[in-house]
Hints:
- This protein has helices spanning 2-29, 59-62; strands at residues 72-78, 89-95, 101-103, 108-112, 118-123, 131-133, 138-144, 164-168, 179-180, 183-184, 200-202, 206-207.
- 15% of the residues lie in helices and 25% in strands.
- Residues 1-61 have low confidence and may be disordered.
- The protein has one domain (57-207).
Amino acid sequence: MASRTAAVSMIGLAMLLAATACGRNETVSTQPVPGASRTTAPTAGATGPSASASPSGSSRATGTTACATKHLRWKLTRADNRSHGAPTALLSARNTGSRPCAFDGYPELDVYVGKGPSVSSTPKSTKPVRVVLNGARAVEFPVFYVPTATQHGSCFIPGRDSPRISVRPPHAAARDYGAFVRLTDAGGRRLRAQVCGTTMQLGSPRPR
Length: 208
C-alpha cells in the first residue's frame, strides 16, 4: 500500500513538472526573437512588387534611388517651334552616374531676380509620373511660359534684369539645393531668360 502511494505521488510529481515546463515554453515562444525580421507579410490578393508600391511609384518602394543633383547634367534649350501650343523651352536632365536613378514627379524650375520677382514651375498635368534613368540616359520636360511681352504690355521678369534660373530634381534630399542652369539656343549659344507672364508649367516627361 505504501509503495502504491509512493508510485502515485511520483507520477503526479512528474505530471506537474511536465505541465510547468510546457507553460514555460509557451511563454518564451511569444517573445520577439532578437534580430528577427519585422517585415509584414503581404496581404491577401497582393502579388509581386506592385503590392508594396505607392500610388506615385516612389523610389523607396521599388528600390531605385531618387535622382540627385550631383549625378545630373541639366540643360534648358529654347524651342525652335513657336507654333500655338508648342513649348517655349525644353528642360533636360542626363544621368551622369553609373547606376540607375528615378524621377518620381516633376523637377522644380525657378526663374528669379535676386530677392525680387520670381516664377516657379508647376506641372501641367496632375497625373503621377515616373521615369527611371539608366547611366547616360536623359529625360526631357517641355516648358511652357510667355517669353515676350504684348504690344502694350510688360514682362514680369524682364531679360534686362539678367534673371537666374535654378532647378532641383523631384524629392531632392534635405541638402540638395539644386543647380543653376542657363537658357541657350539649339546651338548652345547663351540667351537671356525672360518671363512675361506669372506662370510657368512643365509638360509630361519624354525619355531620351
